[in-house]
Design brief:
mainly beta, 12 strands
Length: 186
Amino acid sequence: MLNTVLGSFSSGVAASTSSYESIATGTGTGLSATISFTSIPSTYKHLQIRGIAKDTFANSNVFGMYVTFNSDTGSNYASHRLGGDGASTYANGYATQTSIELRSYSVGNSATNIMGVSIMDVIDYASTSKYKTLRSAGGVDKNGSGNIELCSGLWQNTAAITRIDLVTSGTLWSSSTTFALYGIKG
């Protein structure tokens, strides 16, 4: 089900898979809470980050991540979230934050053979005339108990994005975590 939702979610940005070009891949080491994409070229219309993630924390809690652009950790971000776990739902929004917070995107290490998944689109990332927006879908299926979330985020800055940092809300990204950055042609 989650793959169906994520597949239809990402199809709104580009018409075909030939519109996507691989830029970089970041892999967790088990020693760092951050995966960074740096020196992002300005030659695409949009960016997409696809991830499969696990945190090293020694339980099966559901975790998320914090996203920042160009190493900016000032109170220049806002986000909205809509999510659920099969029994309850939530919706909330936050302004003047130091990152875009995405919940329900990874799981702790004791959740054997279970990974969180996500797709994030960064719209018009190279524009220097408007604020940057992010939309994402992600979740964790823990064999009947899990979470799914749809999010939007805003970076209140007109600078072109040249760096993206993904920081786990748990402890450290496990070595089985991989995020892939794609450029989407205009």
